[in-house]
Amino acid sequence: MVSRISRRAAIAAGAALLAAPAVHAQGNWPDQSITLVIPFAPGGPTDAVGRMMAESMSRELGVNVIVQNVGGAGGTTGANRVAQARPDGNTILLHNIGMATAAILYRQLPFNPIDSFEHIGLVTATPMVWLTRPDFPGQTFADMIRFVRERRDAVNMAHAGLGSASQLCGTLFQASLGVGVTSVAFTGSGPIYPQLIAGRLDIYCDQTTSAASHIRANTVKALAVTTPQPLAQVPGVPTAGQSGLPGFEVTIWHGLYAPKGTPAPVVQRLNQAMRFALRDERVVTRLNELASPPEPEARQTPAAHRAHLVAEIERWRPILQAAGQFAD
Ligand code: MLT
Question: Is the overall model pTM greater than 0.85, yes or no?
């Protein structure tokens, strides 16, 4: 009997050891490639920032940082993938403001944006721009507002899923007008452009990071930016505030995450590599060209990131609850 109990105990102890996350000796980390999960499809703003960061962080860490796009459910599928990953620093996440809005919109979220992650630091802050299909019957944001007021749910508005940055912008826009349009959800900004350019979608609010090249190529119309002042990087486009929606301002922030339980020295090393990338001249130049500058250094810390996320959830909660749109 005694020996049976001790055999069972030994088996249980062995199983627990096997189940325990294999955290690498911190002195050796990183000793293999790192996966950077982008919770949206390729070709969008999160993907653009993520690929710049991955390339630069690879150089600093001495191992490949490989981007993996895991789109779906407004970014929550990819975020959950990282929340459930081994906390060894080899799987990390770049996500945007959607980490805060998902906490409000998804009442059955399988992870907790605050408690399921180690917050590594804030990366960039990005304005948005209202776009239309190229053959849109109007030239100004005021024309677009008129079009939406007249056609209402016959208007197709794209977004990157419930909880995404573009959906937040679209929700605020509809709430400002008191009008509901037809929302068409995609897995990210990238797949939206072929449909918008082909005229199958009417309007879309995207971040400048991916919108800028389409605006320059003249394949879409840019009608208003969501900043207090016009942007040099999107020349000739007025602010939404100047064009019929006073105070309509939206800025999208991005942060880097590791699964909860990732050892503190590994989080610190990831933060160091993140800050290296945000000082890398090539990255900084490109981010500034896209109107998406690095966050100030004081915000590039785990503590500032966590505090900002907590504050953002509280900031958006009453606004999104009043809009009454939930994912589940
Ligand atoms: C969003 O709307 O949250 C993002 O723009 C989606 C993306 O990065 O593709």
Answer: yes
